[in-house]
Amino acid sequence: MNPDRTTAARDERFMRLALTLGARHLGLTWPNPSVGAVMVEERGDSPLILAQGFTQAGGRPHAERMALDSAGERARGATLYVTLEPCSARSRTNDGASCTDRIIAAGVKRLVIGAEDPSPFAHGKGFARLEAAGVTISSGMLEAEARRLHRGHIMRVKAGRPEVTVKLARTTEGFAGRRHGARLMITGEIANARVHLMRAHADAVVVGVGTVLADDPSLTVRLPGLEDRSPVRVVIDSQLRTPPNARIIATARQIPTWLIATVAAPVERERALVGAGVEVLRVDADEAGRVILPDALQLLGARGLTRVFCEGGPALAESLACADLVDELVLVTGRSARGEGDIPALGPTLQERMDEMRPMGEEQLASDLFMFWEKA
User: Fold this and answer.
1) Distance in angstroms (rounded) separating the CA atoms of residues 287 and 309
2) 34 marked as binding residue
3) Residue 311 annotated as part of some ligand binding site
4) Which of 24, 134, 258, 310 is most buried, judging by how many CB atoms fall within 10 Å of its CB?
């Protein structure tokens, strides 16, 4: 039965709240998706929010359990809004109950789902049990938004790799840097803070060794109150050229730092890096001796990562584009280089990919313009 307009409007309202809750812990819940849940008591024209939940850091407890535990006995006869189909496999918690088990035991009357979960632990397996228990199910509420929230999880389940977002900054002339001399300062403080927030919502930030050698970045989140949200730092470093005194190596025991090298990279360099707290991961090399990027992304997926934020500059961005691994593109246009830039931000293949992508909007932050695309 299709809900009437009043019910549909109400469902949209509470699903939007659930989506907002789900976005809160992006970057903290891998290998699980960051789900949002809202428990509502239906009271005619005045529905009452009984409880809210979102997936906790580390992936557990799940959002549904948080909302159900908070609602307690009030969950009986209520409606539960959840951004992703609840799991139905036995849980690793003490009682072993899945979210489907808990929903049934709590006496929830109606379940509204944003997107179905392709995971073998969920996909369609709980629907029959829920319906047999008298739970009415409505699926697909704000589905596009829900799938976007959970795209990293869906990508990992279906393709075995995380979702890849590439961020590039360019001058008004289209340059990302210069081949010789000091680094170009392209964007302002507000734009830089926005980038740090994007880092905080990623499972990992990825750069190439060229960026480490040129800029010696920290790749941390340096926003007040979010300092503990720094993601895993990943360096694509075919021959393990990252210097032992690099900033990311100096803090490798505080923030997980992974270097992805080829199987031929020198073992003695690995020993020094591992001694500093770095994890060295190896994959096969291509004909040029470089890390095979699809293999590297599969390795990150196998380790549980669902969302990676690539800040490695034009060379890494172009290599990812050549391997058709760019799912989202964030292009930031900042100040003029005044004739000093000579490294184009967009390589030819990335430009082609961008032309095939779907524009997702713009943000003007002071003098800097953020433009967003996603793979169609």
Assistant:
1) 26
2) no
3) yes
4) 310
Distance from C-alpha of 75 to C-alpha of 253, rounded to nearest angstrom: 44
Q: Which of 41, 64, 116, 163 is catalytic?
A: 64
**CA–CA separation, 341 vs 180, rounded Å?**
10
Q: What is the largest CA-CA distance in the chain?
A: 70
* Stated length of the chain: 376
* Sequence-separated (6 or more) residues with CB below 8 Å from residue 46: none
Q: Is 63 annotated among the ligand-binding residues?
A: no
Per-residue pLDDT reduced to its tens digit, 46-76: 899 999 999 999 999 999 999 999 999 999 9
Q: Model-level pTM? A: 0.93
Active-site residue, 64 included: yes
Please tell me the predicted confidence (pLDDT) of residue 288.
95
Q: Are 87 and 59 in contact (CB under 8 A)?
A: no
Is 182 annotated in some ligand binding site?
no
Domain boundaries, the chain: 3-153, 160-374
User: What is the token pair recorded at 118?
Assistant: 């392709």
CA distances from 304 to 79, 116, 163, 186, 300 (A): 32, 20, 12, 34, 7
What homologous superfamily is domain 160-374 in, according to CATH?
Dihydrofolate Reductase, subunit A (3.40.430.10)
**Side chain identity at residue 355, one-letter code:** D
- Enumerate the H helices of 251-306 as residue ranges: 267-275, 293-302
Q: How many CA atoms lie within 13 A of 60 on its CB side?
A: 9
Per-residue DSSP letter, 291: B
Strand segments (E) across the chain: 36-41, 48-54, 79-84, 110-115, 136-139, 163-170, 175-177, 204-208, 232-236, 257-262, 279-283, 307-310, 328-333, 343-344, 358-365, 368-374
